Amino acid sequence: MMPFSTREPLGECMRTRAAITLTAACLAVVTACGSTATTAGGPERYTSAPADEPEDHSEEDYTGPILIPDMTGKQLSLAVFEATTLNFESSAHDALGHGRVPDVSGDDRRWKVCSQTPKAGSYTSGNFAFAVVKLDEVCPVADADEGQATGSTMPGVEGKAVTAARRALGNRADITVTDASGLDRILLRESEWRTCTQQPAAGIKLDGQHVKLTAVKMEESC
């Protein structure tokens, strides 16, 4: 009868436990590695870069040609404000040719628009020029010509405001203006006086001669 021995079964048991321990350790390492790759590497591997934001093409940054609105009949102050909202500057002149200077700062509400440049319905990126009259006045059929004398020829200034006559004659002319009524009044505001006569006559060659004008107030007859 062979003696009883536990060495061999005990060794087998220990080998089994060692194998189980090694397997558990490997699983722990694999799990840890997978967790680390998912956590640390996830954003780099799977998160895409943010898409480029679209460019802002708002109307405020647009400076190209636009469709011009019709501003005739409006108060000058409102027309100037509307032009400003379109990022355009404005100028204005007296449509009656009286030489008055309208205020385009926005504070003067006594004027209305008779015509405009550029015309309504056109496309432009330029600035506005308004021909205006006072609110209680009637717009003329055509904008009064306030151009200066061309070359050396005397322009026709009869019927124009004295200020407009001076502008038409230019800075080189030597001009004297007297009261046509014979009352010898002083012309304090020449924009309120209308030219009655002129010497030399329209069309005469200007060669340094003295220009004489007579005038009365706008509401008076020559």
Notes on the protein architecture:
The protein is α/β, with parallel strands linked by helices and 222 residues long. Among the domains are: 69 residues, Trypsin Inhibitor V, Chain A (2-Layer Sandwich), CATH 3.30.10.20; 56 residues, no CATH class. It is built from three helices and eight strands. Strands 2-5-3 form a three-stranded mixed beta sheet. It is elongated and about 50 Å long.
Q: Uncertain runs with pLDDT below 50, 5 residues or more?
A: 4-8, 35-49, 57-62
Measure the end-to-end span.
164 Å
Shape: elongated
The description of the largest β-sheet is:
3 strands, mixed
The third-level CATH topology of the domain at 66-134 is: Trypsin Inhibitor V, Chain A
> Into which percentage range does the β-strand content fall?
15-25%
Quick summary:
The chain is of the alpha/beta class and 222 residues long.
Furnish the topology, listing elements before pairings.
Blueprint: H1 7-46, E1 66-67, H2 76-85, E2 90-94, E3 111-117, E4 123-124, E5 128-134, H3 162-169, E6 175-179, E7 193-199, E8 211-217
Parallel strand pairs: 2-5, 6-8
Antiparallel strand pairs: 1-4, 3-5, 7-8
Core attributes:
222 residues; alpha/beta; 3-stranded mixed β-sheet; 3 helices; elongated
